[in-house]
Design a protein that fits this description.
Length: 251
């Protein structure tokens, strides 16, 4: 290899660039562009990228720099992301009976609605909606479990009677979705210990627990309230039951 080729090879291996600033440039007849100015580690020449459209982002421009502030990011043209505000995340499993035909056997639709409202009010977050009907036993088994519940079984006992897992959900796909969304630190909206364990076991996931809001008291022991009791007593969900439910159970 010639000395020139060796030098070129070394340059290619060691070359680093960094976008220093980005600004919007409108033109008279060619539309609007975002011009990115780049420095490099080999010389003082500054190169440009002239970008059309809002969907191409410079990783180096938008990285968090030492002593970064919103004002500094604004001046250099970086996005002012709400990354100082940890995203609020709800991992929600599909529930046809509650969300589509308004069943009062469970609180899934209410959980989804409350979560979406809370995340919107918080201003930064996501609902990961997983297709895991009936805690992943499917609609057919779920409907048979309902028939057993009408004959004295609770939700856990019914699943066991059908030789189904008490909770067959897996949250690995949720973790991959969060990874794709570049979320590695989150406030997880849940009372489910299994969900917490699966998410916190990931090495690259920093999970803060944000308890769910429990449904309001209804004044009588409805099917929904029996369901919530079972979640607490048989599945270890960390739900603060209303006092009248605790008293009912004590009887």
């Amino acid at each position: 290899m010639s000395p020139q080729a060796i030098e070129t090879n070394n340059i290619e291996k060691n070359l680093k660039v960094r976008c220093e600033v980005r600004c919007r440039i409108p033109t008279a007849d060619k539309g609007e562009f975002y011009v990115h100015l780049y420095s490099n580690n080999l010389n003082d020449k500054q190169h440009l990228a002239i970008v059309a459209g809002p969907y191409i982002y410079s990783k180096s421009l938008n990285e968090v720099r030492e002593n970064d502030t919103d004002e500094k990011r604004l001046i250099r043209g970086a996005t002012i992301k709400p990354n100082k505000k940890i995203p609020l995340v709800r991992i929600h499993s599909e529930c046809f009976t509650s969300e589509t035909i308004f069943s009062s056997r469970c609180d899934c639709a209410e959980q989804l609605e409350r979560s979406m409202r809370k995340i919107q009010e918080y201003g930064n977050g996501v609902v990961v909606y997983l297709r895991q009907e009936g805690r992943n036993i499917g609609l057919l088994n779920k409907m048979m479990a309902y028939n057993l519940q009408d004959n004295g079984y609770d939700t856990v006992e019914a699943n066991i009677k059908l030789n189904q897992p008490v909770d067959g959900r897996n949250y690995t796909i949720a973790a991959r979705i969060l990874e794709d969304l570049q979320i590695d630190t989150l406030r997880l909206l849940t009372n489910n210990p299994d969900k917490i364990e699966q998410l916190t076991s990931l090495d690259d996931m920093n999970t803060i627990i944000e308890p769910e809001i429990v449904p309001e008291e209804h004044g009588k022991l409805t099917e929904l309230e029996k369901y919530l009791q079972t979640k607490v007593e048989s599945m270890n969900h960390d739900i603060p039951l209303p006092e009248y439910l605790i008293h009912y159970h004590a009887k």
